[in-house]
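In this supplementary section we document a worked example of the pipeline. Step one takes a protein sequence of length 846 as its only input; no multiple sequence alignment statistics are reported here. Step two produces a three-dimensional model, which step three serialises into structure tokens for compact storage. The input and output of this example are shown verbatim.
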Amino acid sequence: MKFGLRLRGGLLATLILFGAPVVAPVGAVLVSSSALAQTVQSISVEGNRRVEVETIRSYFKPGPGGRLDQAAIDDGLKALIETGLFQDVRINRGSGGQIIVSVVENPVIGRIAFEGNKKIKDEQLTAEVQSKARGTFSRAMVQSDTLRIAEIYRRSGRYDVRVTPEIIEQPNNRVDLIFTIEEGAKTGVKSIEFVGNNAFSSYRLRDVIKTRESNLLSFLASGDIYDPDRVEADRDLIRRFYLKNGFADVQVVAALTEYDPEKKGFNVTFKIEEGAQYRVGAVDFRSSIPNFDPSSMRAYSRVNVGSLYNVESVEKSVEEMQIEASRRGYAFAVVRPGGDRNFEAHTVSVVFNIDEGPRTYIERINLRGNTRTRDYVIRREFDISEGDAYNRALVDRAERRLKNLDYFKSVKITTEPGSSSDRVILIVDMEEKSTGDFSISGGYSTTDGALAEVSVSERNLLGRGLFAKASVTYGQYARGYSLSFVEPYLLDYRVALGLDLYQRQQLSNSYISYGTKTLGFSPRLGFSLREDLALQLRYSIYQQEITLPNYLANCNNVQFLPDGSANPSFNPSPAFANANGISLASTNGLGCYSDGEASLPVRRELANGKTLTSALGYTLTYNTLDNNKNPTDGLLIDFRQDFAGVGGDVSYLKSVIDAKYYTPLVSDIVGLVRLQSGMLNKIGSDLRMLDHFQMGPNLVRGFAPNGIGPRDLNPFGTQDALGGTKYWGASLELQMPFWFLPKEVGLKGAVYADAGGLYDYKGPTSWTATNEVNVPGCIPSTVNPSSTGTCTGLVYDDSKVVRSSVGVGLIWQSPFGPLRFDYAVPLTKGKYDRTQEFRFGGGTTF
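The serialised model returned by step three reads:
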């Protein structure tokens, strides 16, 4: 009689009989214990083609004495099934008590193909599925791959996807695996609602989250694609936003998502319980560490009595205090914030408790997921290393720095127990993303006309954390190229070294009669003094020259001929000159301009030829903006100084300050106050006209570029703007959304009032030239020189008039890039100022 034990599909049916006989159910297989008392060598294998006999035998582990018992055979059977190599495994008993293992091997996959996929490439799907060509076929694995492909499509917003696997049998126990995909339409977010929000409007909260509603321009972005992970992350963003604004009890109870079959999209609803808004009632510092003065930490606190309770300020204070304690030698100090709420007064008393933490050291820092980025690029963002005391504040800072690098889709630092109780292992999990960019940018503005730029950049060059960019610009009035390179860690110090090489050409247009060519090189060093304060040191050396058409640089139509007689063809229209209060009888040189000459300072720059400027400078930046691209709160101050005269042909000291303060007002209206000022000081040699400040709508909207400030009054010339050595400006602006439009459209309106002034021209007003006819009233010619002469007489306006305007603007954060339209009406202006009521500017990358 032959007994057998059979297993199919992972179901083990084994019955062991001991003692009294029993009645076995139909289909059961009986194996006596004596029949199982065999060795591994007594196992024979049938049906195998690719898998070696010894490999199959190795799954059966003998017990004491080298004998196989029932448990060892059961375990071996399970292990063989779990390998996924076999469709069927059976165990039978042969003659002489021999154990026979009969197997049916799974087929081998010949090829894997995808059909119907247009939105996701074959390469991406191949990388995601577990089934591989020349690998073992498994129906369970195919089912898992089918679900994985569907999940990938759902992540890209296509919830109507259908994936059907097809198995085509081939000779020699091989199969082809075909996944047929019906992608379906994109499934977007049709509506986003907020329930329970009273302090902030739904319009404002849509600014906080990353998910967007679908609209006509959604095909240019991906924020409207439904992503459950992104919705969950939005819950935390909303909670953090409320905590930042004083709502210490806030809870985002749920993020409800519902598929609407009629709209073929999702409706997302966030349920919020705001609670009360709190202010800081008191700030105290306590320490349980001997000889540690807790009050010394007050200087590192960003929490102020009377201000709104801000959890981010508390967290930054904890980080700064813990790092400072570590610097003082208390490596294991832990700062724990506490808060006592006064529910009636709506205040929070914040207490920073400084205690001795556990003495834990970092055993290792393990990096996972950086396939391209070098290890040292990641490790240098840590202020701690293996063997140092574990400091959570420094770990959190490292995680924030790694995210700010923008090399990774995600960064998460966790801890694992080390080799002993006082050791921890830091695990840094990362998912890399593309860091290279190729862009074609286009735009138009009323100043520069049409403009196009082609650029190639890489933020993580060769995986070494280097930045490089090359760009070429070609436009109606502006052309040039630039090469940039940045080493963020110079000599392994947190100092950024930047190198810029550029060539720019500005052509003459309706605002300036002359063009300029500039070729320059500028190395710079950047320091982060703290998170909101940065310093940049730079050196600039550039060569500059003016270009001018011949007809603006000749002096042939003079008032007198070389023999001293009057020029009969000279007719400067005295009536026009007298109307402007300018006497042509004086020796002011106006006669030279009868056919439209450029201004004296312009022609003097032309006569001087190429000029070399060598300057040292620095910029100090203070930035507390909540969002650099679309700020609603915070302060941004830039203070710059440049000293020219470190060699070169010119010398001056130029100082500029620009401050912007944003603050949220009522009903999603944001207020902006901007103050500007600049001063140019002469040092040594005379100042050039090109070194002066030129102002227009960048100071007071409603005026043309180079439209305000000192100006040449010659009525027969080009009346060029001369610029000034001093300027000031002040602006008040209210930015408000269009509540009747969807938030995703990105349109905002603005109303504003500007005031400012530019004055104190200190450039050339006369010069002595060679090779010119010595005739009274002649401005020297730079095109047709003939003999030596002296030229004087620039007449210009330099009144200290306050220019002011009011206007409205339209701001569009469009998929094509930021666009702005302004219409401003000047209220006060100088007699010779030039206005431009409408202004438009913008661009994009596509």
